[in-house]
DNA sequence: GCGGATCGGTTTTATAATGCAACCAATATC
DNA sequence: GATATTGGTTGCATTATAAAACCGATCCGC
């Protein structure tokens, strides 16, 4: 690879996001963190990821401020990995991915996990709106580029 | 790598989505497609991606039904790559990534591209709601696992 | 409090994915 | 009709990933 091309200087926020969490495992780790997993072994068993890769991913997720490693809750000597605010704000990304996958990647009737409101039990969805509340589709959206057009 | 672990059998829709589009370049190509790019060379210049990798990614995106390659519009002999409905429905994912990146990956005042409603010029955002319209935060959400708990 | 199991990693080694450059056929351009 | 551009493909070098072995520190049974 000769060093995977960095997108961190890109002026497109999507590109920078992908630079931060777009690698193969990071979002899956975040998903499991949303699911309440906190310990190294929990992630490892859940994802079936190699331990060296997991260690590295957890390290960079912590470096980037998406997770924090807190010493230990109950006197235990191990580390726990918790989502930061920055990490928790990836929630819409997770929901968007989930919604798309539900729609296109499952056979009709094939079982899959579902996301619901814990209070009411109602299904959760997400949609794109203007700031005054009008729903919007992709073709109506317009990208305003930044003056210096290095890349969108 | 001994074959990158496939997640396509996973019962978590997010995992399947990441299996389909979670690699390094696919979502960036989709982003450019949203931006109106259609031709091989356009993607190549925009992304700075190696041509062999781009060719391969376009191929698999077409295989997976996210793009289609249409012969040529104006008599020209080249191919054009267009988003399918499946691809267009990745729009919320793009918006979610963009929104997160805007918030956490840019210095205050640093310029970046913006997404607006083409009709009204109003900024676009997205939020997670129950199907009856109540906004919801990550901590209120609950994942209902599928009976056979191979993985969430 | 001793032996074994588990946890949380690190190192080593093998292979797959990526990037780069060179090449090439088919069009477009002049 | 010569040249440049487009849309790739084919090696080759390098990096990222996976699997397995290993290791110290804790946890557990008794």
Biggest interchain interface, per-side counts: A-B, 83 and 83 residues
Strand % of chain A is 15-25%
Q: In one word, what is the shape of chain A?
A: globular
Look at the helices and sheets of chain A and give the structural class. alpha+beta
Give helix and strand order of chain A, one letter per element, not per position. HHHHEEHHEEE
- Oligomeric form: homodimer
Query: Treating each run of at least 4 consecutive H or I residues as one helix, how many helices of chain A?
Result: 6
Helix content of chain A: 25-40%
Strand order of the largest sheet of chain A: 1-2
What are the low-pLDDT stretches of chain A, counting only 5+ consecutive residues below 50? none
Separation of the first and last Cα atoms of chain A: 24 Å
Question: Would you write up a description of this structure?
Answer:
- Two copies of one chain form a homodimer.
- Chain A has 152 residues and is an alpha+beta fold.
- Helix content of chain A is 38%, strand content 15%.
- Chain A has helices at residues 13-21, 26-34, 40-47, 51-63, 85-88, 91-104, and strands at residues 67-70, 80-83, 114-117, 124-130, 141-144.
- The interface between A and B is large, with 83 and 83 residues.
- The structure holds a DNA duplex (30 and 30 nucleotides).
Write the layout of secondary structure elements.
Two copies of one chain form a homodimer.
Chain A: H1 13-21, H2 26-34, H3 40-47, H4 51-63, E1 67-70, E2 80-83, H5 85-88, H6 91-104, E3 114-117, E4 124-130, E5 141-144
Antiparallel strand pairs in A: 1-2
Chain A binds a DNA duplex (30 and 30 nucleotides) through helix 3 and helix 4.
């Amino acid at each position: 690879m000769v060093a995977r091309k960095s997108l961190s200087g890109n002026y497109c926020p999507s590109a920078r996001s992908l630079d931060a969490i777009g690698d193969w495992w990071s979002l899956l780790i975040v998903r499991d963190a949303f699911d309440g997993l906190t310990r190294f072994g929990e992630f490892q068993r859940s994802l079936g990821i190699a331990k060296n890769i997991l260690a590295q991913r957890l390290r960079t997720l912590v470096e980037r401020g998406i997770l924090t490693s807190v010493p230990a809750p109950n006197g235990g000597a191990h580390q726990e990995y918790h989502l930061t605010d920055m990490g928790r704000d990836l929630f819409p990304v997770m929901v968007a991915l989930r919604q798309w996958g539900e729609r296109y990647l499952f056979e009709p009737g094939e079982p899959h996990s579902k996301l619901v409101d814990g209070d009411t039990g109602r299904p959760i969805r997400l949609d794109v709106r203007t700031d005054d509340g009008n729903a919007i589709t992709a073709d109506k959206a317009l990208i305003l580029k930044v003056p210096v057009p290095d890349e969108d």
